[in-house]
Design a protein that fits this description.
TIM Barrel, eight-stranded parallel beta sheet
Length: 387
């Protein structure tokens, strides 16, 4: 099936694009008996917008919801409390599927795998496991409707919460029937009630996604509290000391989740489980796999792994490159051309336009076959999508 909007033999796949959920998604898609507890955006007594999750305010986003989108906009304007609304930061391509297709045409993107935005912010605020599953179910129903405008080019990724392991199994099975191609999981331990990935309660979930051939992916999250490396934050921090530090270190959540999955033996126990490592960049991965291999060899008597970590990675994982990374071609050459995908992160504040051109420049020295794999063929293969 030919879907390329640019070159006949090259399909370009954005493996991590985002939607900006309309503020009333959960009010419309939650079951009627739960709608009073829906995720919503409301102004507080001071007139400042808040993201409310089961009645709790997301402290980190108070008055800054426009910064959840914001591509091409001024960060100071969006991050100044009360300056902009959520919708001010929402380009039409974030919430309107026809407009998104137009953006993809302009950017020469053939296929986009779509992840949530409000969805990467709410999990740490929910203690009710059944409600967490209901929030996911509502979003997943909405994203399937969003992508129904063009199911060849817009690919829904299901949001699954592990707080309710049985509910996670039921919802991932339902989402697969609806056409979701993969699973987004929060890397944040509070999102699963502190359970480790090898907790026996989660065994049926891992077995299910393995059998359904649905790759799981970790992605950075926007916590309300307990920022990364909290001990390094000070109440008196200004933007340079706090915001830049936190923004950069969001990647640690993804790196830690990937490393935990590896060292706790999930890839050994579930040899057909597939995992994508998203929005942490890719240029670190070869050094980290070298380090994991070395530490594993030293500590082999204490590990259940039968293969080297790098061997599990090549058997079951891919990593997403960001268009502005400077060493992507070298990473592909060192790691192998089958293991790298790429992502636009549209329409988030740190995303930009003309990213396909940037990526093509970064990998221009690679053989044409390797370029095709990175641009799209790897993602198509990994997610079982038709070319």
């Amino acid at each position: 099936m030919q879907i390329s909007v640019s070159e006949p033999n090259v399909v370009t796949v954005d493996a991590d694009g985002h939607v900006l959920e309309p503020r009333d998604v959960w009010q419309r898609y939650l079951e009627p008996q739960l709608r009073e507890r829906a995720i919503r955006i409301e102004r507080d007594a001071e007139g400042v917008e808040n993201l409310l999750v089961d009645g709790r305010s997301h402290l980190g986003l108070r008055g800054r919801l426009g910064a959840l989108g914001g591509i091409g906009m001024d960060s100071k304007d969006l991050m100044t409390v009360g300056q902009r609304s959520y919708e001010d930061g929402c380009p039409k391509g974030g919430y309107d599927p026809s407009a998104r297709l137009n953006v993809m045409d302009d950017e020469r993107i053939d296929v986009a795998l779509l992840y949530p935005t409000i969805g990467i912010a709410w999990e740490g605020l929910v203690a009710d496991a059944s409600l967490a599953t209901a929030y996911c179910r509502a979003y997943n129903r909405w994203i399937v409707d969003f992508c129904s405008v063009d199911r060849r080019r817009l690919v829904p990724i299901a949001h699954i919460s592990l707080l309710d392991p049985d509910g996670a199994v039921a919802e991932v099975e339902r989402a697969r029937r609806d056409g979701c191609a993969g699973v987004y999981l929060s890397p944040d331990p509070p999102s699963r009630g502190g359970m480790q990935f090898d907790d026996p309660k989660l065994a049926r979930f891992w077995s299910t996604v393995q059998d359904l051939e649905m790759p799981v992916a970790f992605h950075v999250v926007a916590r309300s509290e307990n920022l990364p490396l909290a001990a390094w934050h000070s109440p008196n921090d200004g933007p340079v000391g706090s915001v830049v530090f936190s923004f950069a270190f969001l990647a640690l959540d993804v790196m830690a989740a990937f490393t935990s999955m590896m060292t706790r033996g999930l890839f050994e126990t579930y040899p057909r489980l597939r995992m994508a490592v998203l929005e942490a960049g890719s240029n670190w991965i070869t050094a980290w796999l070298d380090r994991l291999d070395h530490k594993f060899e030293v500590m082999r008597p204490f590990s259940s792994l039968q293969l080297l970590p790098s061997e599990y990675f090549k058997r079951q994982c891919v990593i997403s490159a960001e268009p502005d990374e400077s060493l992507t071609a070298a990473i592909v050459e060192h790691l192998g051309s089958d293991y790298v995908i790429w992502a636009s992160d549209y329409p988030h504040l740190d995303a930009s336009f003309q990213v396909v051109d940037s990526l093509r420049e970064r990998i221009a020295r690679l053989p044409q076959e390797a370029q095709r794999k990175v641009l799209g063929d790897n993602a198509l293969r990994f997610y079982g999508l038709a070319k």
